[in-house]
Design brief:
By secondary structure, the protein is an alpha/beta fold. It has helices at residues 12-16, 102-121; strands at residues 8-9, 25-36, 41-48, 51-58, 72-81, 87-96. The protein is globular and about 50 Å long.
Length: 123
């Protein structure tokens, strides 16, 4: 039995600007701003400076979902690029993490990347 990949952390602005490979397993975060139950879609939003970045999430695999608009979520899933130029994350896990220290998470992702770069260059 082949297990899916664990997912690499990407910042929401990296996902929304196309810096993630198609089909790649990823983890990202954002505030839930829209939940369309009929389309099985959630939109997460994150702000970086004055820019707002949105990520569309397909929730078919994680329903039923008790979405809390305005709450912070972490998603684990695979990225699919669409024909119209956009992209959708097919969620395997969508977890509400309201109350989590977001600046600390961002710092942890940066530290993890630094560690992985150092480790990769030493081998």
């Amino acid at each position: 039995m082949m297990l899916p990949k664990p997912g690499i952390y990407y910042f929401p602005w990296e996902v929304s600007t196309g810096q993630v490979p198609d089909g790649g397993a990823l983890r990202t975060f954002g505030r839930l701003c829209v939940y369309d139950m009929t389309q099985s879609r959630v939109t997460l939003m994150a702000q970086r400076g004055s820019d707002q970045h949105q990520i569309v999430i397909c929730t078919k695999l994680v329903e039923p979902l008790e979405a809390q608009v305005g709450s912070l979520y972490i998603v684990l899933g695979e990225l699919e690029h669409q024909k119209d130029g956009g992209s959708v994350v097919k969620a395997r896990v969508l977890t509400c993490v309201e109350g989590m220290n977001l600046p600390l998470l961002e710092q942890a992702i940066k530290e993890q990347r630094m560690y992985q770069r150092e480790r990769g260059s030493n081998q």
